Amino acid sequence: MHSNAMPSQAKGRAETHGRTEVNGRAKADANGQVRFNGQPRGDSPAARPDDQARADSQARADSQARADDHAEVNGQADGIPEATVARLPVYLRALYGLAERGISTVASEELAAAAGVNSAKLRKDLSHLGSYGIRGVGYDVDYLVYQVSRTLGLTQDWPVVIVGAGNLGRALANYGGFVSRGFTISAMLDSDTAIVGSKIANLTVRHIDELEAVVARHKVAIGVIATPAGSAQAVCDRLVSAGVTSILNFAPLVLSVPEGVDVRKVDLSIELQILAFHARRRSAARPESRPESRPAGPAGTPVRSRGGNAKTVGGNARTVDERSRPQVSAELAAKG
């Protein structure tokens, strides 16, 4: 299990880097050659002819990434496409992993592989943050942690309330990864009088009737709904009325919210169904074994004939394809 302290340490070091940032777009290398967009400026002597082919290849990949990104612009916030925002937490998780291993710089290809994306798309995503990296050196891990964290709003703490203290709610409350990412579970609520008053993850479960007071007292920014589907919408309505505009919904229900409220839905059963689809497709795509490549089995073992029907070797039952009957009859006549 990774240490929860490491992300905070990496974030602290990154904030030091952040104080020296100049728009995040220009950076000098060790020789003082100013680089822009991850490549030397055109008037810089650092641009060598032997790098031209590689630069052209990277430029084509980046151009394709820009074209792909253009299709994702709808619904962007702060000039960053929603698809890019969805990938930033993945990059941050990969960066934390690199920081834990003591890696201070990382190439775009290595970071892209760790995040499971195309390197050109990663470079395009990070360009929205003003981070371009340096060719031959890569990205500074701590500084990139700072940039991504700042963009995601993780340089401050976010109070969270969990509504629903069942098995899922308990698991969420006990997960230590939230605190290290800037999320504080401030309260847990439930309607079951048998659970209210009990302790979960050092929190006393409060009654659902206290929802509005809890939200106001802790200045809750994010509400997590871990209730059955039947009560999820009512809980959502109360959270919104109390001023909560960000909701994470684990209930198997599509919530109706007013404009200005963001809802993220997590449905594990849907994810399992998608995996089942891909598993079935892989199973159906497997080619059947050819009959001539299979050795003859022992007595009673079914063997596939060319016509597709099975016959039993050494057994009493024999089912033969219609097309093979004339040949079998001829063989029996010859033996007679």
Give the SSE layout:
Layout: H1 5-19, E1 26-28, E2 34-36, E3 39-40, H2 52-70, H3 82-100, E4 105-106, H4 108-115, H5 119-127, E5 139-140, H6 141-152, E6 158-163, H7 167-174, H8 177-180, E7 183-190, E8 199-200, E9 203-204, E10 206-207, H9 211-218, E11 222-225, H10 229-241, E12 246-249, E13 262-265, H11 268-285, E14 302-304, E15 310-312, H12 325-335
Parallel strand pairs: 6-7, 6-11, 7-10, 11-12, 12-13
Antiparallel strand pairs: 1-2, 2-3, 4-5, 8-9, 14-15
Helix pairs in contact: 1-6, 2-5, 3-4, 3-6, 4-5
Question: In summary, what is this structure?
Answer:
The protein is an alpha/beta fold.
The general outline is globular
Tell me the fraction of residues in β-strands, as a range: 5-15%
Gap between N and C termini: 76 Å
**Annotated CATH topology of the largest domain:** Arc Repressor Mutant, subunit A
CATH class membership of the largest domain = Mainly Alpha
Stretches with pLDDT under 50, minimum 5 residues: 1-6, 18-49, 64-77, 310-315, 317-326
Number of helices: 12
Structure commentary:
The chain has 336 residues and is α/β, with parallel strands linked by helices. The chain contains 12 helices and 15 strands. The chain folds into 3 domains: 148 residues, Arc Repressor Mutant, subunit A; 114 residues, 3-Layer(aba) Sandwich (Rossmann fold); 40 residues, no CATH class. The strands form 5 sheets. A 6-stranded parallel beta sheet has the order 10-7-6-11-12-13, sandwiched between helices. Helix 1 packs across helix 6 and helix 3 runs antiparallel to helix 6.
